[in-house]
Amino acid sequence: MSQVETFYEVMRKQGITRRSFMKYCSLTASALGLGPAFVPKIAHAMETKPRTPVIWVNGLECTCCSESFIRGAHPLAKDVVLSMISLDYSHTLMAAAGHAAEAALEDTIQKYKGNYILAVEGNPPLNEDGMFCIVGGKPFVEQLRHAAKDAKAIISWGACASYGCVQAASPNPTRATPVHKVITDKPIIKVPGCPPIAEVMTGVITYMLTFDRLPELDRQGRPAMFYGQRIHDKCYRRPHFDAGQFVEAWDDENARKGYCLYKMGCKGPTTYNACSTVRWNEGTSFPIQSGHGCIGCSEDGFWDQGSFYDRLTNIKAFGVEANADQVGLTATGVVGGGVAVHAAISALKRAQKKTQAKVEG
Amino acid sequence: MATATSDVHAHGVAPEDLATVSRQTSVYVYEAPMRIWHWVNALAIVVLCLTGYFIGSPPPSAQIGEAAEQFVFGYIRFAHFAAGWVLAIGFLGRIYWAFFGNHHARQLFYVPFWRAAYWKEVLVEIRWYLFLEREPKKYVGHNPLAQLAMFFFITLGVSFMIVTGMALYAEGAQEGSLAHDLFGWVHGFTWNSQRLHTLHHLGMWWILTFMIIHIYVAIREDIMSRQSIVSTMISGHRTFKDDRDD
Fold first, then answer.
1. Chain A residue closest to B224 (CA)?
2. Engineering a disulfide at A227: which of A153, A222, A343, B229 sits with its beta carbon 3.0 to 4.6 angstroms away?
């Protein structure tokens, strides 16, 4: 590993022609929403820059991020992306195991101090000193802190690393904690989703390699180019929403006509992601297109926002589940009833006072 | 209090009317901008509650024509946003008037929290509503209990609805819009905007609860207290039914 190869060298070695390479550069540029002027820039970066070492660690997770990542089409993950970055450590994808794997991790940390990217899939549980997730014989939180110390930047893959996801859902028995609440002194880029879209994952990495900086982030630390807009605002069923045409029940006539899934609890209006534009599996489809509402998997605490099939969130209090309307109706009912009773008593009192006045007068 | 016929300077006085004759003191309390704001605000809130409820739970699907030919939910949302802007700008105007209007224009925006006498009078007012006082005190402006309710339901309630509402509006208006620049920060507190939607929705019920109490109490006080209430918000004049001291 004395001389790190450039991306271009690696690609040529794998039998990719220059023509294919240039095609890849222009596809990447368009995937990132960049103009044609950026194609030679990307090509130049690929030809001259040494591959950036990436350490990919896994905490409490389900590996759906890795599964999604290896299905990236633009840029193609299969050969190109896995060579583009120098993926020096990844449980799931590396050939080495056991001590050899751990040695590779140490090697990369030592060699590229301050220059490698740490990609985190999953999150560390903090309860019981982190004993709920053990990697290489030690709590995952220790590996995370150790690897983060000398990292240039951290990518939080998926809802787990970004927000906590299902293992952090109430009551969160293991105290699974998103990465940004454990590592506070490094630039962290959140790429939420369960999993994130493959092209979004590879796109983020490509951007960071090409421009040597983090992409523009939104308020929550997500790349604005993919998480800047709501699913709802780019949804192809939006005209039915504005028209007031909704699916009223699964499998009704409106569902067959492809009406808006708002009433079926679609979380598109509160979810920021690129599903309705980039779509999934090489742009084949996305949840709403397949007839099911968005469940808001790339949003903070999406497991705790009530049913996937309700627009109004359940509010849990005193062990009783209710939504805002039930709470409100109860409140207005109580107040309305109180008012009615109060009015009746007031009327009686007044009548009494009048008779009294008459008697006294 | 009953006076001779000659004292009633009006036409059509029947002899039996004389028993109800009283001399009334009248004070000009609510200036025109206040009254206009009150009614515009009330109308905006009614529109906001109705359309807001429908945004949370849409009416049955409309089948007027092709999706391109109808805009039912769009109009509902438009009405909500338009009324929201009216409410917000009206509230700004109301704050302006607190500075430049008369003394009573300021009562909405504070609670004399540290004045013991104030809380004593709140207690008297509560006792009046619990039928424990024979008669209420007279006030030119809001009574102390009303002031407290106005502050929590309207000043804080409407502020909350404007801030959360504008933040939700900013989602549709998107980054770079005025609403987003001014209120986008609110999302930093809730992150998942589904939470903000729920809070905004609960806020509607908070204000609806106030509406019920407000209308009931205004009418009740108009009948049972020693002063005018409802007409005061129309004419601006507070009239007192007796000249006795409290």
1. A350
2. A222
